[in-house]
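dumping this here so i dont lose it
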């Protein structure tokens, strides 16, 4: 299934629709890009997993204008949008990021793509491959939904997400979005994600947290 169909929106509407679906979307991506400033190299190779239409890659280019960008995504339509957005300043690879050998790099980034990995075991494997691909001093950074540690906080966060959706969509559609994504996407607690990254070898910081959304950065 393509990215737009998965989100329940029409192809071509992604860039307009995404901020109506994800609260704090812009802040989260800005936060992920800002974290890249901690990478010393001024000409880093950046591999963006599930790059989609290249929104995070574009922000990283503002922080490191001489970065060499590589966007990996399974959806050719999204990659075409990324190439257009970045006017060719991104090398695109149409592949499953769980299978591909991640190229040697200084940054592995991701935004709202790694929740497509269905199990903790497979996520741990991806994190280990990210660590292996990174040069010493390199960074893994991901912006995504990470669950709270307990049920009452998880409920508060779900209510906040629902309230955001209802600002832009009918109440019925908002509920349907969350129910559908809950069946298709896999979210772990923030604590578990930090643990998985530490197990892969990273030194981990949570650089942004709002409701169930966060930016996690791991230094190699
Ligand atoms: C919700 S979109 C996020 C896109 C972009 N990073 C953003 O922040 O707007 C998720 C993207 O991950 C891609 N994706 C999901 N699972 C993938 C996989 N296993 N391999 C490659 N791409 C994948 C989808 O095709 C889609 O473009």
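and the seq i came up w/
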């Amino acid at each position: 299934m393509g990215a737009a169909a998965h989100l329940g929106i029409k192809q071509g509407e992604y860039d307009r629709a995404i901020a109506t679906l994800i609260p704090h979307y812009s802040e989260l991506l800005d936060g992920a890009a800002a974290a890249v400033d901690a990478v010393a190299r001024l000409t880093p190779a950046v591999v963006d997993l599930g790059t989609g239409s290249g929104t995070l890659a574009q922000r990283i280019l503002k922080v490191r204008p001489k970065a060499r960008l590589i966007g990996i995504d399974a959806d050719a339509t999204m990659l075409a949008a990324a190439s257009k957005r970045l006017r060719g300043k991104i090398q695109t690879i149409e592949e499953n990021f769980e299978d591909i050998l991640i190229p040697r790099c200084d940054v592995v980034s991701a935004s709202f793509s790694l929740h497509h990995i269905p199990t903790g075991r497979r996520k741990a494997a991806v994190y280990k491959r990210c660590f292996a691909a990174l040069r010493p001093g390199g960074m893994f950074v991901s912006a995504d939904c990470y669950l709270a540690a307990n049920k009452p906080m998880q409920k508060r966060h779900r209510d906040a997400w629902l309230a955001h959706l209802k600002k832009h969509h009918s109440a019925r559609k908002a509920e349907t979005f969350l129910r559908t994504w809950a069946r298709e996407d896999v979210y772990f607690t923030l604590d578990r994600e930090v643990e998985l990254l530490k197990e892969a070898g990273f030194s981990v910081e949570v650089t942004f947290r709002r409701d169930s959304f966060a930016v996690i950065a791991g230094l190699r």
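DSSP finds nine helices and seven strands in the chain.
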